[in-house]
């Protein structure tokens, strides 16, 4: 079985209880970080009809924050997570094109999106550099990628602890806690516009451009 399919099966398995597993985290700082992320997205909207992609919609936790008057696409490679996202789109009465798609092989034209958003996605993409290169490909020249991501700490002790315990989250639901996401961004050829540390140097809000 390919790595993609293994991770997809793990997310399919936990989809019905995924929100419950992360409830405490959402009621803590994560909920605030998520709202701030979408406020930053709102600030980037300067014309009607802009296209936005949420790459890795998961169970749809961001859907309630989607801005109005945008053409919004949201993708995930787990069909059962997409089922949960569809319920939230109906609950919050949001117009969104929900599509089963692999972030590493996007079925969109080059230079298609004005804005791309990810939140806690690149911990689970099997080939994160390939996924980031795909986001770069479909992003317009003047577009922006706004990310809320967790990654390996630069602190020697904390980083080693994350390496040692990575297998727990990886084999439970397919997420890595020790990804070197800033390095991966640079390898993908994307340019860092802004980085804000939200929890030590582990959780960051990041803005990128081509």
From TrEMBL:
User: Which top-level group of life is the source organism from?
Assistant: Bacteria
One MF term in the entry's GO annotations: S-adenosylmethionine-dependent methyltransferase activity
Q: Which InterPro entries match?
A: Methyltransf_11, SAM-dependent_MTases_sf, Thiol_S-MT
Methyltransferase type domain residues: 53-147
Q: Name one Pfam family in it.
A: Methyltransf_11
Q: Name the Gene3D superfamilies for this protein.
A: Vaccinia Virus protein VP39 (3.40.50.150)
Q: What are the coiled-coil residue ranges?
A: 82-109
Keyword Coiled coil set for record:
yes
> Which terms are listed as keywords in the entry?
Coiled coil, Methyltransferase, Transferase
Give the UniProt record's GO annotations in the biological process aspect: methylation
- Transmembrane region(s): none
Q: Which PANTHER family match?
A: METHYLTRANSFERASE LIKE 7A, METHYLTRANSFERASE LIKE 7B
Report what the protein is called.
Methyltransferase family protein
